[in-house]
Amino acid sequence: MSHQPKLHHLELRGLTLACHEWRPQLRGQAPTLWMVHATGFHGRVWDQVIHQLPGHHVIAVDQRGHGRSGGTGFDSWADFGRDQAAMLEALEVKDAVGVGHSMGAHALVQAAAFAPGRLRQLVLVDPVIRGPAEYHQPLPPPGTLHPSAQRKNRFDSAQQMFERFADRPPYSVFDTQALHDYCQHGLKPAADGQGFELACAPAFEGRVYPSALANPSVYASIRALDIPVLVLRARPQDPNVKPWDPLGTPTYAQLAQEFRQGRDLQLLDKTHMLPMEDPALTAKLIADAMAEAGR
Predict the structure, then answer these.
(1) How far, in whole angstroms, is CA 216 from its chain's centroid?
(2) What is the span of the domain harbouring residue 221?
(3) Each residue of 54-112: pLDDT tens digit?
(4) What's the Cα-to-Cα distance from 287 to each of 85, 90, 233, rounded to whole Å?
């Protein structure tokens, strides 16, 4: 039996969307886990979490512009949610447990609302969902790029990437194997044939972050959901880290209360990178949430 997932490519919404299916033989026999990564990452960053959940069928998606998925444009983060909804429907996934991290958790909330019945429970790991009032504040000027747009894009190998990132935050908090997974699957052959480049182009990543508050419709999706939702929050942001603390939580502290069936759990000793920082704990929290919801 293969210990690697099957890569699927789906032609949906005018682009190619990829996902990684683990243990297809368990489909229909155990709850499907639908897993969604954060900005700049890919579906294979969940590998170490998935290894801790051996009894489950899993589909880990590559969001548009990430991993093996295509697409370089978007209007708002709602597009990422609509992509997932289309994938859930195309793959005929029903009654799955959605697990999303950071921006992926934001998009997952919308996917659950856009495709009713496909997801029956959500585990949101430090979702980038701010308080309702913040979505009415002025947005950055069009064309604003996050500093990630300037990150190094060319590497000789995954090992070179690993060595560069191992002692640099936020990657320095990663479990060693999780960082290897990120590097191994986060590169693609460079267009000019010389070495490798990031599968999520820095220019694309740099456009995603400034759009965080450009999607007030996420609250309409929150209001529409009547399913169990666990909101996991990391430690608070450190105001002494400039210009911003990438390891502190970006999540609205009262977010769980906005859901009809929301529950909050803050982990004061963990960071925003929880799935890669502590895969075993992440898997346990997912399993516990499923047990509590009767899954």
Answers:
(1) 19
(2) 6-292
(3) 999 999 999 999 999 998 789 999 999 999 999 999 999 999 999 999 999 999 999 99
(4) 23, 26, 17
User: How many domains is the chain partitioned into structurally?
Assistant: 1
The answer to whether residue 1 sits within a structural domain is no
CA dihedral (34, 231, 186, 278) positive or negative = negative
Per-residue confidence at 2, pLDDT binned at 50, 70, 90? low
Q: What is the DSSP string of 21-85?
A: EE-GGGBTTBPEEEEEPPTT--GGGGHHHHHT-TTSEEEEEE-TTSTT------SSTHHHHHHHH
- Angle, alpha carbons 212-146-244 (nearest 5°): 80
Question: Which parts of 100-210 fold into alpha helices (H)?
Answer: 103-114, 158-165, 176-185, 202-208
CB 97 within 8 A of CB 120: yes
Q: Give yes or no for residue 295 having a pLDDT over 70.
A: no
What tokens were used for 212? 């965080």
The whole-model pTM stands at 0.96
| Phi, psi angles (nearest 5°) of residue 21 | -100, 125
Q: Are 123 and 98 in contact (CB under 8 A)?
A: yes
In a domain, 66, yes or no: yes
Helix axes 103-114, 78-90, angle to 10 degrees: 60
Summarised one tens digit per residue, pLDDT across range 34-48 is: 999 999 999 999 999
Domain of 147, CATH number, reads 3.40.50.1820
Task: Tally Cβ neighbours within 10 Å of residue 64.
Answer: 25
